[in-house]
Amino acid sequence: xxxxxxxxxxxxxxxxxxxxxxxxxxxxxxxxxxxxxxxxxxxxxxxxxxxxxxxxxxxxxxxxxxxxxxxxxxxxxxxxxxxxxxxxxxxxxxxxxxxxxxxxxxxxxxxxxxxxxxxxxxxxxxxxxxxxxxxxxxxxxxxxxxxxxxxxxxxxxxxxxxxxxxxxxxxxxxxxxxxxxxxxxxxxxxxxxxxxxxxxxxxxxxxxxxxxxxxxxxxxxxxxxxxxxxxxxxxxxxxxxxxxxxxxxxxxxxxxxxxxxxxxxxxxxxxxxxxxxxxxxxxxxxxxxxxxxxxxxxxxxxxxxxxxxxxxxxxxxxxxxxxxxxxxxxxxxxxxxxxxxxxxxxxxxxxxxxxxxxxxxxxxxxxxxxxxxxxxxxxxxxxxxxxxxxxxxxxxxxxxxxxxxxxxxxxxxxxxxxxxxxxxxxxxxxxxxxxxxxxxxxxxxxxxxxxxxxxxxxxxxxxxxxxxxxxxxxxxxxxxxxxxxxxxxxxxxxxxxxxxxxxxxxxxxxxxxxxxxxxxxxxxxxxxxxxxxxxxxxxxxxxxxxxxxxxxxxxx
Length: 556
Fold this sequence. Notes:
By secondary structure, this protein is an alpha/beta fold.
């Protein structure tokens, strides 16, 4: 249900906010008053093709906002595109258009593509008439309308699922055939690569360890030279210790002479002797520590060359296979998997072909069952539509649901198109090519009456009463009223008979002040509605007879 429409700066409308109720709503007014602007704004909000000509003169931007009750199909589509929805709230479609032609679309205040806005809009709204490329003018909707009429949802879902499976299995066959076609070339490469990586046998983190070892080995020779010099300075022949011992002996002789002396000199000799004793001990410790350090830098000859050779081999392999050194192990596993796939390709291809054949059989059965159901439903639909045409002053028209075999799709193998002939002796042709605007709307009305209760989209009929009056207009009004029992319906009409059948009526008027022209929309209710329908009947001068006729129309 369309709950509201807000329009800003669209052609002659400066600002307009409307709220709508259930049932049938009539939009009335003189020709040129701006009824088409309302439809243009509604189309703009729901994703119809719109151009910058809709922007009101003197303004930079036009905007239209439409609020709809949330249907299950729309909720699923929005959730699939990560649009937040609340099942207890309306879904709001908003679109703005600048004077330089740039457009922005929003659903529930989340920016969306124009394509998604149009998809959602097509689920919420159907416009039937010559001014909108959706509805019956879109031949792609005909197959869905036939399935809706026939209740083919289960068959159609089964066919769609079978088609998806068929596409998946066929894609697998094609992938395996492509794999087998290049298997010889790939096999040679993969076998060589696996053998090379097996010989190299990289381990995780090996490049880091090798890099650290290389840096150590590159500095080891210089370090060993420094440590050797330190050893030479410390001496290894005991001469250094002999000199220290000689010095200590001299100090001891002096200490013996002053053994009983408590002077400062005696205490100094004692300290000197202790220092010489420590020096003799620490000199050996230093010599031992330096020897140990020298041993840690005494590396195996050629070790640096071996380390660099290994590191460079790993880096070369990583460059060759376009990966990090740590990823060489994973690359080897990937190559092994690809080689295994090649070796098993014939067996896998045989299995895939078998699965594809089975999927095709399933699809063919599902598509055949759906086609048979459509053929049967088409005959019933044709009869139902034909019954509705005579009261709509189209008793000489013909309507058939034309079905022909086409390509395999998720919808089956059928191409469905409604065909009509509006005059005796003329050949049947596509509905969207043959019917005029008014005829198109009446055909749509006949089809929708036949489909009554089978969809929840809001329906708009434009020019459905074109070229008819009297009893025919009355028949149009009654059918629109009947249709509105199960769906919300809007009709743009000049006919008092059609307007009288509505539950709600809005009058659209154009007014001018100086050089400014605006379109205004007014809800016509209660006694004013009788007066408005009387005006539609009588013209400028409203007579009592016209008022009586209006009361009779509204009561019928």
